[in-house]
């Protein structure tokens, strides 16, 4: 069951963890300079030096103030199976300078991640800039080879999960969200990845059959305009029989029942004339194929004059035989207006013919939807129950990348710092512990980073939280709950306790709960309040001591 939940591309490693979902994720999925640096480390005898790297991002995407962390499981799958094949080593040899010594390639044959340790925030957690999403410790040459694949696996996953969460926030809890982006995604990997990570971010189902098989994500889909326009008339339906849902008898001519209901609707309503009969034939044929799951696309010709009346006729015919139709899909036009008109029509049918719950049939909308259109629909007022969202969701049209970085913060127990004239690009040195502090109302108040050996914050005890770089920004916090964020997901050869990777459904549920406990002003679309990320007083002092120590002193002439 776990393999289906979370996907698998190859047999599990000796540690029982399957390889990455995408078989292209190999040790060669990296930048050339990772191998050139590895050789230079090896040549200098530095390759076994113990290094610590932080993986984090500098700015929240989409103009918002939060991000959903995703992609961790694929990183763990990658390092659990990290081993260069002889063929891959030969290619590396061809790609590097001919002056590289043979001993380096002998070294590569023995490289794995048994001496690497990975600490990470749980996948699906709401996260913020500068806080390490992952801390990777190990021999510097090996960890350097992990940089590009880790950044690649986290960047898009976190970006599209965040995009999905933002769409869910605008749509509201009660609406069904369907990911329909496969045909517009950036290639197969973008399509499959989007389905997985949109599910984590709060979407309910996908149209992507491969993702359904790999990850156990619920599938949704009915028919396209092509199916409707492929029919010419009702005479094309050769097998017209349909067995009652309870199996007690068979209706020999379902088409006649449909036509009878259409006549009744026309007499009672009087608003529309003759409907499109080829559309009626398509709907009838689809209902005969899927009587338990009849949902019709009603905008091929005319929504209110043809599509909806034709759907209702078929739905009422199904009702006569004990089946309940699902509803309709709108893929064009004024979705707010049309959805309201369709709901009125459904309610009038329920009242006129006494069919319980007919007025509550589902209305699904698609057609290049995004955050802005969902927000506009909410302001206009609509009757849509489900949204099918594709292009703007899976391509992350509003922002191309998250901007994840991977920075050295310690080597041989010596803290290191990366400086820049742009303060936002200055790294926070040393191996750190990260905590989330909660206030009296249960909301997270601030994330704080401390040195590894500092005592942790305690519930009820006041702690000074400082902005990493701005001296005047500081505040005392008395936390009502303290949550340590980084957990060990890959202990390497150490005896540290390893956290297990949860099933995809559990990651999704955890993400939804995280989003629900965030303070509303951090989550809003317009002018959200920045969430506070801080360091302890001791770490603040050390950052600035190291900064002054490493920065060259200029001389004025």
From TrEMBL:
Any GO MF annotation of the entry: metal ion binding
Ranges of residues in domain Nicotinate/nicotinamide phosphoribosyltransferase: 203-425
Bilayer-crossing regions: none
Pathway it works in: Cofactor biosynthesis; NAD(+) biosynthesis; nicotinate D-ribonucleotide from nicotinate: step 1/1
Cofactor field: Mg(2+); Mn(2+)
Segments forming domain Nicotinate phosphoribosyltransferase N-terminal: 28-155
One GO BP: NAD+ biosynthetic process via the salvage pathway
Reaction catalysed by this enzyme: 5-phospho-alpha-D-ribose 1-diphosphate + nicotinate + ATP + H2O = nicotinate beta-D-ribonucleotide + ADP + phosphate + diphosphate
A Pfam cross-reference name: NAPRTase_N
Highest taxon listed in the record's lineage: Eukaryota
Cited function: Catalyzes the first step in the biosynthesis of NAD from nicotinic acid, the ATP-dependent synthesis of beta-nicotinate D-ribonucleotide from nicotinate and 5-phospho-D-ribose 1-phosphate. Helps prevent cellular oxidative stress via its role in NAD biosynthesis.
Protein name: Nicotinate phosphoribosyltransferase
Annotated organism of origin: Phaseolus vulgaris
């Amino acid at each position: 069951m776990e393999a289906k939940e979370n996907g698998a591309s190859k047999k599990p490693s000796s540690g029982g963890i399957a390889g990455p979902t995408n078989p292209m994720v190999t040790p060669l999925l990296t930048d050339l300079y990772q191998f050139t640096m590895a050789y230079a480390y090896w040549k200098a005898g530095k390759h076994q030096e113990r290094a610590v790297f932080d993986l984090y991002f500098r700015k929240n995407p989409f103009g918002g103030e939060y991000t959903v962390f995703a992609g961790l499981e694929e990183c763990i799958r990658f390092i659990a199976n990290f081993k260069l094949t002889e063929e891959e080593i030969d290619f590396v040899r061809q790609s590097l300078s001919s002056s590289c010594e043979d001993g380096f390639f002998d070294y590569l044959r023995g490289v794995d991640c048994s001496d690497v340790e990975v600490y990470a925030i749980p996948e699906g957690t709401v996260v913020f800039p500068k806080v390490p999403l992952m801390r990777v410790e190990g021999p510097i040459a090996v960890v350097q080879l992990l940089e590009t694949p880790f950044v690649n696996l986290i960047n898009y996953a976190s970006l599209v999960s965040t995009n999905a969460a933002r769409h869910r926030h605008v749509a509201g809890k009660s609406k069904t969200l369907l990911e329909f982006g496969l045909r517009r995604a950036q290639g197969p990997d973008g399509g499959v990845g989007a389905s997985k990570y949109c599910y984590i971010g709060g979407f309910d189902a996908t149209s992507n059959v491969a993702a359904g098989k790999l990850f156990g994500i619920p599938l949704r889909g009915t028919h396209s305009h092509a199916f409707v326009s492929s029919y010419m008339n009702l005479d094309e339906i050769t097998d017209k029989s349909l067995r009652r849902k309870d199996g007690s008898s068979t209706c020999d001519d379902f088409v006649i029942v449909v036509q009878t209901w259409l006549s009744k609707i026309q007499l009672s309503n009087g608003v529309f004339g003759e409907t499109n009969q080829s559309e009626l034939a398509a709907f009838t044929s689809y209902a005969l194929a899927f009587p338990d799951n009849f949902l019709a696309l009603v905008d091929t010709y005319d929504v209110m004059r043809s599509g909806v009346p034709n759907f209702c006729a078929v739905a009422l015919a199904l009702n006569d035989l004990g089946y309940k139709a699902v509803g309709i899909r709108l893929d064009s036009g004024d979705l707010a207006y049309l959805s309201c008109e369709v709901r009125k029509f459904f309610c009038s049918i329920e009242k006129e013919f006494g069919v319980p719950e007919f007025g509550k049939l589902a209305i699904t909308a698609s057609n290049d939807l995004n955050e802005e259109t969902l927000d506009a629909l909410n302001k206009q007022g609509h009757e849509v129950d489900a949204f099918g969202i594709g292009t703007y969701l899976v391509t992350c049209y509003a922002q191309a990348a998250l901007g994840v970085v991977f920075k050295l913060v310690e080597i041989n127990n010596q803290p290191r710092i990366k400086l820049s004239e742009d303060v936002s690009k200055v790294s926070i040195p040393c191996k750190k512990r990260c905590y989330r502090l909660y206030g009296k109302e249960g909301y997270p108040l601030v994330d704080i980073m401390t040195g590894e050996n500092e005592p942790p914050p305690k519930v009820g005890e006041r702690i000074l939280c400082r902005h990493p770089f701005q001296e005047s920004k500081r505040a005392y916090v008395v936390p009502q709950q303290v949550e340590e964020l980084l957990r060990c997901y890959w202990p390497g050869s150490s005896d540290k306790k390893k956290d297990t990777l949860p099933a995809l459904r559990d990651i999704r549920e955890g993400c939804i709960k995280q989003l629900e406990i965030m303070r509303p002003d951090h989550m809003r679309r317009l002018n959200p309040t920045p969430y506070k990320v801080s360091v302890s007083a001791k770490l603040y002092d050390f950052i600035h001591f190291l900064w002054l120590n490493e920065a060259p002193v200029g001389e004025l002439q």
